[in-house]
Design brief:
single chain; globular; four-stranded mixed β-sheet; 2-enoyl-CoA Hydratase, Chain A, domain 1; alpha/beta
Length: 105
């Protein structure tokens, strides 16, 4: 696993989460969602973080879901598709329910 697909930084009360797959226009993978979940929890529980900024490296914020996952992994094994979709929704809900302001930039 490439642990640099998402980067978390903190400075002066600002938590910054950067999607870091610029060659793929920051398309979201299973690993990306796992790291986002980890960093959303980290930001939520860190009292020094007062606001959260979510951004993308390179020329795009995010192209959305990396559809290569659907053909190669998830659609070939439909039993993995439902948990993946549930994980995506839970991750998005974590950001929506966070009691700290967040900005997508």
């Amino acid at each position: 696993m490439n642990s640099n697909v998402v980067i978390f930084e903190k400075h002066d009360g600002i938590g910054k989460i950067t999607l870091n797959r610029p060659k793929a226009l920051n398309a979201l993978t299973i690993e990306t969602f796992e790291k986002l979940r980890e960093y959303f929890i980290k930001a939520r529980e860190d009292d020094e973080v007062k606001i959260l900024v979510l951004t993308g490296a390179g020329r795009a914020f995010s192209a959305g879901l990396d559809f290569s996952l659907l053909g190669s992994t998830l659609l070939e094994n439909l039993s993995k598709l439902r948990p993946f979709i549930r994980m995506i929704q839970e991750t998005i809900n974590m950001l929506e329910s966070m009691e700290k302001p967040s900005i997508a930039a």
